[in-house]
Structures are given as C-alpha cells and as structure tokens.
Specification:
By secondary structure, this protein is an alpha/beta fold. It is built from 17 helices and 13 strands.
Length: 390
Amino acid sequence: MRVFLAVAREGALLRGAKALDEPLSSVHRQIGALESALSAQLFTRSSTGLKPTPAGHSLLNTAETMDDAAATALQTVTALRGAGRQPQTPAPTLNGQWDGLRIFLAYARTGTFVRAAAEAGMSFETARRHLYSLEHALGLALSTRSRGAIHLTPAGDALHTAALVMEAAVADANRSLAGLNQRPEGLVRIATTDGLGAFWVTPRLERLYERFPGLGVQLQYRPHQPDLANGEADLWIGYSEPQAKALIRMPLGRIDFRPVASRSYLARHGTPWSWDELASDHWLLTHSYYTEHSDDPDFARWGRICRGSPRVRLETDLSMSLLAATVAGHGISLQPSGVLDQHDTLALVDLPCAATAPFWLVYHEHLRHIARYRAVIEETIAIMTQAGLR
C-alpha cells in the first residue's frame, strides 16, 4: 500500500521509486502484485503520467486513510519512546508490517496466540514471529499478560486504534472494488510487429469489440519485444519467445511464408523455376527478420541468397513496406501465404519453400486476473484458433 500511495502521489512509477528509494523493477512488481491480488487495474497512462482508474481512486482513499492512521500511531509511539532516545536507534516504522498488524488485531480480539494464528491462517510460530517483528519495528512492547488475560500497553492502545481504522478502510475498499473488477472495460495496449498487426490483429478486432464494447485497444508497432515487466506494453504478439520467469508465453500460431511477386513483375522478368535462377536473374526484396531467422532452413536459404547480393533492391524491417514494394512490382519477396487472398495482383512463385515462423502471445502473469486483459487474452486465442493458425 505504501508503494501504491507513492506512485499515485508522484504520478509515475519512476518518480514513485525515487521517492521510496527503491528500484523501479521492485516498484513495478509490487504494483503488479497488488493489481493481481485485487483483480483490477489501478492506473492508466496519459500524456501527463499515471492516473488512477476508478478502482485506483477507491484504493487511494483507503491508502490515504491507512497512511494517516499509521502516522498518528507512530507519533504516539515516538513520544512514548521518549526524547532521550539514542540517535542511532532506528525510528519506529510500520513498513512491511501488514502481517504483524493482522496478527496484533487478531490477538487483541481473541486474547490468545492460538486463536489469533487460526484467524489469520498462520501457524502458531509464524504468528508469534510476525508480532515480535512488529514490536521490534516499533521499539516497544504492545501488550502484557496477567491472570490469563492480555492488556494493551499505551503503545498497543495507539496501534490498536490505528489498526482498526486500517481494517475498516480495507473492508470499504473491498466492497467498492467488488463491483468494478468483473467488467472488461478500458484500454489494453498491444505491442506487435507491423505485419502481424496489419494482417492478423487489426482485421480481427471487430469480434473483440462486438463482445466487449467497453474495451479499447492501443496498437503499438514494435520490431522487437517491449519490456513488459516494466510496463512498456500490456501484451506482446510477436515472433520472439521471452525467457523472463514472470512472463507467460503462449504459442499463438504459425505463419507460412512463400516467394511472391506481382503479375506485372513476372510478365516483365519471367518466372524463376529454380533458386539459382532466382538468385542470379531476379530482383529481390527482403525483410531483416528473414535474414536473421537462420533456425528455419528455408529462411536460412533466403538469407544466404540475399546476403551480399547486388540484386537486393530493398531490405526493410517493415512488413507493410515490403508488401507495398512487392505489389508495385519491384521484385520477389517472401510473404505470408494469406496475402494472396487479399491482393489478386500477386502470384505465388512455384519454388519449394516451407519457411514457417511461430509467433507468441506474451503477457505478465498478474494480467490474467484483471477482467479486460483476461478478455483480450482469451479472445485472441479463440480468434487465432478459428483462423487456423494454431
């Protein structure tokens, strides 16, 4: 909650991390874990920074209430510890003590460690360890025990008042969030290559909008996978498989690539009937991805032909530019087989080629617990399956 409050107040993950003096990756991870636990997105991005969503506003009220209650309790504890405290003695803190507060409340309510541990779903030893950690962080004992009953110390009384306020604030937030979590509404940022975006993602968004009219999509062109862990995008649909453990990677489909030329080009230059003839007598257009994709034998052959060839007229990392050059009759390129259905001016060059590129759906694991991301993930899988790509 401390991290969420800092990010909300600063309006940016990086500024929140600086205010907390914590690594950006840690702050991003904690916000993601909180969103996952609440099954709700807490921030949206705008030109001026991060803004709380409706769920974020509900939680912000809770966080500010909890922060005020904690500050009041810590002032009391500081005063009880006395002005003569040694300078090197750490100041009292509640940072990282949420489990200790839960146990303390349960202990004050039930009167025994055994019942407090059971109420909190912890073992006896774990519960006692959390309470000792809380007392150590504050520098004062919170309770005494006599004749089978517990008695709160002045520090315990102050903390008990604050903890009750915090508990009530959390309950209010849970009630507010309950009605917000189930609607798949809001913006989802999908990063993908320009080819996948143009050929496969954009033409199939209509079905998504029909099912979930409250959803909006921001489509980002990225030649390489963005840093999902640090929030550069929400989902990645692309040809690279990530290795980060926090990312879920799902094979989404495979796309076949074949040599293609415009009918006007073939009328002027003839049709090559062998790879050697293509390499020596024809103009070539290529994508940088093809020459890098040496794990596929047919992409590797295409790369060998194009590498250093004086007959390469265009090399690009933009699939749509490659397609436009091919349609314009500038040369022969490898194209997804589906483009022939969309451009009747193109023809397949009948050479043995089985170049295939697998592509992936990648997202951070906490997103699957948030309604709008879950809806887009599930619908994307269904669309690609229906299209015969999976």
